[in-house]
Structures are given as C-alpha cells and as structure tokens.
Fold this sequence. Notes:
Layout: H1 5-29, E1 39-46, H2 58-64, E2 68-74, E3 79-85, H3 97-114, E4 118-124, E5 128-135, H4 138-150, H5 160-164, E6 175-180, H6 187-195, E7 199-206, H7 208-211, E8 217-222, E9 229-234, H8 243-258, E10 263-267, H9 274-281
Parallel strand pairs: 3-4, 3-6, 6-7, 7-10
Antiparallel strand pairs: 1-2, 4-5, 8-9
Amino acid sequence: MHISSDIIAHIRQIELYTQRLLGNFLIGKNKSRLKGMGFEFDQLREYYIGDDIRSIDWASSARTQSIRVKQYLEERTRTVCVMVDVSTSMIYGIEEKYEKIIWLASVMILIAAYSSDKVALLLYSDDIELYIPARTGLVHARKLIHTLYMYKPKKPVTSILSISQQLSILKERSLVCIVSDFIDNTLEKAIKTMVYRHMVCAIRYLDTVERLLPGKGLLLMKDQETGTQSYIHIPKICNGSVSLLHNRIQTQNHTFKKYGVPIFDIVNHQKPAHELIQLLSSSIGH
C-alpha cells in the first residue's frame, strides 16, 4: 500500500500534537502515568531484604512498629476498539467532515498506544467494512492511522445495531469508542446490546450546519444515505435550531445516559483536549 509523503507528514503532525496534549495533561494533573499503564495497589506486607526502599509505607510502619511495604499487582492491559462510522452521512457538511473524523480517530488511537493499551480499529456502515485486531505499540498504531487515511468507504447506510451483533470479533471485554454522528434509528437497541459485554463511550461529531439550519419555512432535504429528497416544514424555536435535529440530539443524549455511556461532543474546528484524554484514561474499563 503506497502512502504519499503528504499523508506521512500529516500523521507525524498528529503524533506531535498528541504528545504535547498528553504532556500537558500529565503536568496539569500531576500524574506520572495514564490509566492502563504500570501497576495498581494490592496490599501492605512486611519488608523483605531486597525490597525497593521506595515502596516502604512509612505511616503504616510507624503504626505497626515494623517496616511495611506496598505490594502492587501489574495492571491488565486494556483493549480499546476505535469504531468509526464511514457511512455517507459522515461526509455531509460545508466543512470536510470526514477528514476531521479521521483526524479525531487518529488522536484516540495514539492516546491508547501511548497508554500501553491494545488498540483495534473497526470501520463500519451497515456492516463491518474493515476490522484490524488489537495490538500494542506505536508501529501498530501508525498502521491503523495509515489505514484510516487510505480507506475508501463502500456503503452509504448506517446500522449500529448490525455492528453491535457482530462484536464477538472482540475476544475480550473492551472499551469501544464509537466515532459517529449517530444518525441511526437502531441506536438504543445497539447500545443496549453493546454495554452488555463491553464498556462504551460515544464521540459525536456534528457540523455547525447540522445544528444551525434556517429557523422556519420549507426546506428541501436530501438523505445522504438513501439519496431520497423531500420538503420538510421547520418550526421556529428560540435558538434558531431545527426542532427535528434538536430532538434527535436530545434522544441520543437520553439513550447514552440511560445506559451509562459517556459522550464527548466535537463541533467543527474544535480539537479534543483534556476532557477526551480523561474519558479514555478514566476508570472505564477497569
């Protein structure tokens, strides 16, 4: 697979951005690691010759009048599946929406890789179009990002429910990060199916024009996934948004809240910051 020098340079820029983002996050939070790396506390025990003196718990030692050390268990490597909607609706908008989706998914892949998590990539429409199993390491992460930038979507229609019924390809309990606009009538059934076995988080991308269309009158609408056209009447509401789209977002929010799925919204040029890292490095999945 030939990759142009422009794409390679662009991916390098994404890596540098993610490194800076993670560096600022760790400095700001005074943390030495992200969740998913290193060790977790197990118990206190007596000191044995050869133990690292840095593991001594001085408070406990003073109380018990004997040297006590903290014993740790190595944390299980987490599996993160970045699941990207490549249906036609993701190409809608004045801005190059699909490019922003790819950029966002790439940052998420790198965050997982830098956290020593195993990361998989799943591209879907109404079927799984491409799946690359989870592995650790930056070489694997770069392969996934290269794939994202070279991939050509095949189908126009979305069905998250169809995909949720095929997630047996994930051999272990995983953190499934869905990047989509979630324009799908099967959303609730799909989320209900997914959360039974996996941890799920939603990253919703909406173009500005999807939130701020004309406030009233008739509007010719074209379904990007089916190609059908129809006129709809748009009632005016106080913030000038289309009530149909407003209600769709509220319905999605209700579904995510009902099943305990955290959601992160991205609009146009907004770039993921500390909140997205916190979403991926939190206790979800542990």
